[in-house]
Design goal:
This protein has eight helices and ten strands. It is α/β, with parallel strands linked by helices. Bound molecules: 2-amino-2-deoxy-6-O-phosphono-alpha-D-glucopyranose.
Length: 243
C-alpha cells in the first residue's frame, strides 16, 4: 500500500486529483468509482478546475458511487446523488446518464438488484474512498463479518453521530443505507483513499497495526495490490506514522 503524506488538505486534494487524472487520461472511457463525505470535496473541486482549464475530459467516463442513504429522494440536499451533482457532476463535462448512484427510495429489493447489476458489469479503474472515524468504507460498518456485494446496511450510532453535522438534527439522519460491499470495493483495479478530519483511530489501525480486521473495514485496503492512502502531515504525526 502506498502512503502519501501531504502538507495540508489542498495538497491532499491535488495528489488525489493527480491519480484520478492519470486514470482518465490513460483511458478516457473508463469507469470511476466515487465517494461522498467531506474528504474528497477538495479533490472534486480540483478535478473540475482541470476539466475547465486543462482539458481533462470526462465526456466518455462512466461513474458508479459507493453508497446512498435509504429513504432520501435524489433531490434531497443530503442525498448522495445530490452531493455528487453539486460537488462534481455539475462542474465537469460528464454525461449524467453515465453516472450511477443507487436509488435510495422505492422498492429495496429492486434497488439492490439494480445496484448489483451495475456493479457486476462495471470494471472500476479507480475507486475513490473516504473513511469513517470507525474505519467504515462506503457504509460497510465494522462487524463480525463483511459483505461481498451491494447490500442494505444498518448505520452504527457512531456513524449517525458523525454524519449528523450535515442534517438539521440527528433525528433526520437516515438509519439505513445501500452500499457497495467490500468485495465490490476490493475488485476495483485501484483504490484511492483521501483522508481528512479526525481519523486517528482508523488510521492507526490501517497504517500502524498489522491486522486485517472486519471491525475496522478500511484495514482490508492493505490486501489490495494497488492502493494509495493520502493524508495530511498533522494526522500522520498525531498517530506516530513515520514517513
Ligand atoms: C460517510 C460516507 C463514507 C465517507 C464517510 C467519511 O459515512 N458514507 O463514504 O467516507 O462519510 O466522511 P468525511 O469525509 O466527511 O469524514
Amino acid at each position: 500500500m502506498k502512503v502519501i503524506v501531504c502538507e495540508n488538505y489542498e495538497a491532499v486534494s491535488k495528489a488525489g486529483a493527480d491519480i484520478v487524472e492519470k486514470v482518465v487520461r490513460d483511458n478516457p472511457e473508463c469507469t470511476i468509482g466515487l465517494a461522498t463525505g467531506s474528504s474528497p470535496v477538495g479533490m472534486y473541486k480540483e478535478l473540475s478546475r482541470r476539466c475547465h482549464e486543462e482539458g481533462l475530459d470526462f465526456s466518455k467516463v462512466h461513474s458508479v458511487n459507493l453508497d446512498e442513504y435509504v429513504g432520501l429522494e435524489p433531490t434531497h440536499d443530503q442525498s448522495y446523488r445530490y452531493f455528487m451533482d453539486d460537488n462534481l457532476f455539475n462542474h465537469i463535462n460528464i454525461d449524467k446518464a453515465n453516472t450511477y448512484v443507487a436509488k435510495g427510495v422505492g422498492d429495496t429489493e429492486a434497488n439492490l438488484k439494480e445496484f448489483n447489476a451495475v456493479l457486476d458489469k462495471a470494471d472500476i479503474a479507480v475507486q475513490v474512498l473516504g473513511v469513517g472515524p470507525d474505519g467504515h468504507l462506503g457504509f460497510n460498518e465494522p462487524g463480525e463479518v463483511l459483505y461481498d456485494g451491494a447490500h442494505k446496511e444498518v448505520l452504527d450510532e457512531s456513524t449517525i453521530d458523525a454524519n449528523a453535522r450535515f442534517f438539521a438534527s440527528r433525528d433526520d439522519v437516515p438509519r439505513y443505507a445501500f452500499t457497495m460491499g467490500m468485495g465490490n470495493i476490493m475488485r476495483a483495479r485501484k483504490l484511492l483513499m483521501v483522508v481528512s478530519g479526525d481519523k486517528r483511530d482508523a488510521m492507526t489501525k490501517l497504517l500502524i497495526e498489522d491486522k486485517i480486521d472486519p471491525k475496522c473495514p478500511c484495514t482490508f485496503m492493505r490486501m489490495h495490490r494497488d492502493a494509495t492512502v493520502i493524508l495530511e502531515k498533522s494526522l500522520a504525526d498525531a498517530i506516530g506514522y513515520k514517513y
